[in-house]
UniProtKB/TrEMBL annotation:
Gene3D superfamilies found in the cross-reference section: Electron Transport, Fmn-binding Protein, Chain A
UniProt keyword annotation of Signal present: yes
Native organism: Spirochaeta africana (strain ATCC 700263 / DSM 8902 / Z-7692)
Protein name: Pyridoxamine 5'-phosphate oxidase putative domain-containing protein
Disordered: annotated span: 30-53
SUPFAM superfamilies: FMN-binding split barrel (SSF50475)
Keyword Membrane (UniProt): no
Lineage, top ranks: Bacteria, Pseudomonadati, Spirochaetota, Spirochaetia, Spirochaetales
Endpoints of the signal sequence: 1-25
Keyword field: Signal
Length: 195
């Protein structure tokens, strides 16, 4: 998705409407995604029971569809890391406070390796939610011209977990140069197909 897409108020409005009405994705951040499992109601119930966040929590990566996913268009590993590093200028990041009240922010990700995202976040509610819950969700979409809508978008929906171990943080920041004081480091815990 180009930067110009994010400067278009209609794109931002559509993204906000899609995101604000969603509920947490039907996947636990500690389990592998199984694309053959289609009983999303059962998954949602399991996830809500396991999650530290309640059912009012909003999720930027929740699909508009609760059933149809585009597994073939999902980026993983190096392909996703390169897209976030080179092609995607901003991503929606959603969090919820411990009571389940959601927030959404547009942020510029900085990839470190294949599975760590650095986000420089000011003293906002989004930052506090990440510090309180240790979780965030994000959506990375790339548009490409294609004949059918299902082929037009590539990317991934991801669940991110806060890295707070001091030794791991030191290892990550060694050799990075100037790291913003407000930087948070999050590991990609789950990759979920677009939907």
């Amino acid at each position: 998705m180009s930067y110009s897409s994010f400067s278009n108020p209609l794109v931002l409005l559509a993204a906000a409407v899609l995101i604000s009405g969603a509920t947490f994705t039907a996947c636990s951040p500690t389990e592998d995604y199984d694309p053959s499992h289609t009983d999303t109601r059962e998954q949602e119930a399991d996830y809500q029971q396991e999650s530290r966040l309640d059912s009012r929590a909003a999720d930027a990566v929740a699909a508009a569809s609760r059933v149809h996913y585009f597994e073939a268009n999902t980026m993983y590993g190096q392909q996703l890391a390169e897209a976030l590093r080179d092609s995607i200028q901003a991503i929606p990041v959603a969090t919820a406070d411990p009571q389940g009240v959601p927030t959404i922010s547009m942020m510029t990700p900085v990839m470190i390796g294949q599975d760590v995202v650095m986000l420089a976040i000011a003293e906002t509610q989004t930052r506090q939610n990440i510090l309180d819950t240790g979780l965030a969700t994000a959506a990375a979409y790339l548009y490409q011209p294609a004949e059918t809508p299902s082929q037009q978008y590539r990317g991934a929906r991801v669940v991110l977990g806060l890295i707070d171990d001091e030794q791991e943080l030191q290892s990550l920041t060694d050799g990075l140069g100037d790291v913003p004081e407000n930087a948070l480091f999050l590991r990609i815990l789950r990759i979920i197909p677009l939907g």
